Amino acid sequence: MENLPQSLPTYIPFFSDYGFKVTFGNEKKTLFLRKALQALINSTIPIEEVWFEKNTIEGATEESRGGVLDLSCRDERGNVFIVEMQWGYMRHIIQRLKFYEAARMNIHIRKGNLTFNGLPKIYCIAILGYSLFPDPNYHRIGQMRDENGVIMDECTTFPVVELEKFNKKPEDCITDLDKLVYTMKEAHLLEKSGEQKPDFMEEPWLKSALEELDTRGLDPERHAQLSIALAREMSERWRLQNLENELTKRGMEIGKEIGKEMGVEIGKEMGGNEREKEIIRNYIKSKPNATNEEIITLLGVSLPIVLEVRAEQADAGQ
User: What's the pLDDT at 262?
Assistant: First the structure.
């Protein structure tokens, strides 16, 4: 992702906190969200209405953590949609979605007096700014299947979009999904690249989202506020991404050295654990008051390793 310019682009990026909130999270204008959800789950059935749900999930026990969803809503047929936007690399994103799905399913089961009748379909959608899977497909829909490909459970579906893999030109964007992903990835770059806005961006659902992101009608004070907030957000993301990249490299080097003496697999595992610990240490150093939940959610690490780092720091008197 490019460095953010000093002045705001014509359209604020979809993947910024503000951009996501005023498009996907816009409770007053839901046309874009409804059409986007339909495209992301590859459904031919229009979504007529959506209701936003509480976006926090409490831990099941005192020791377990909860989570904060980017977006949670349901439609008129009772389908539940959880949408997570993750620009920087998070290798545990699928496990994170599974945690959210399990917690949401648990809520509905308890509402039904611990029965499994009439459970809703839950769509856990991940929109990623990086490549997670090795193949070139930028969109996939995962479900539980057996060894013959037969679906074992239709209650939970995991649609995943990897923006980094999408490289279609405007004239090749035929489906709503293509149009959505192109708009999300390229709209804020149009002014800088000199490209003309594709005709499909004038379709009502995309136009309504772009109107919310358009900075040309902002008063000077609001323009300055958003510019500063966006610059800080992008700077923090870049810092954490660079740290992740550097520590990944260092972790691999540690693994190779240890692997020479203790075996390749052991070496890789130890190198990876030490890398995660170093990421956590640096984050705590930059934000001493960070909670365990914040660290786990932002860095995509497990609770046990966070507690281990906390214990090590306590022993060292830090």
Answer: 40
pLDDT tens track for 137-194: 999 999 888 888 888 888 899 999 999 999 999 999 999 999 999 999 999 988 776 7
Backbone angles phi and psi of 44, in degrees to 5: -90, -5
Which residues span the domain enclosing 271? 221-315
Instruction: Using DSSP bridges, classify how beta strands 122-128 and 151-162 pair: parallel, antiparallel or unpaired.
Output: parallel
Q: Does the predicted TM-score (pTM) go above 0.90?
A: no
Tokens 């992740």, located at residue: 244
Residue 197 lies in a domain: yes
Which tokens in the block code for residue 138? Answer: 């930028």
Q: What is the pLDDT of residue 316?
A: 77
Rounded to whole angstroms, how far apart are CA atoms 142 and 157? 6
Q: Among 174, 196, 217, give the residue marking a domain's end.
A: 217
Number of structural domains (the chain) is 2
Within this chain, do residues 206 and 227 fall inside the same structural domain, yes or no? no
CB 48 within 8 A of CB 39: no
Query: Looking at the chain, how many residues does it have?
Result: 318
Domain end: 217, 237, 265, which one? 217
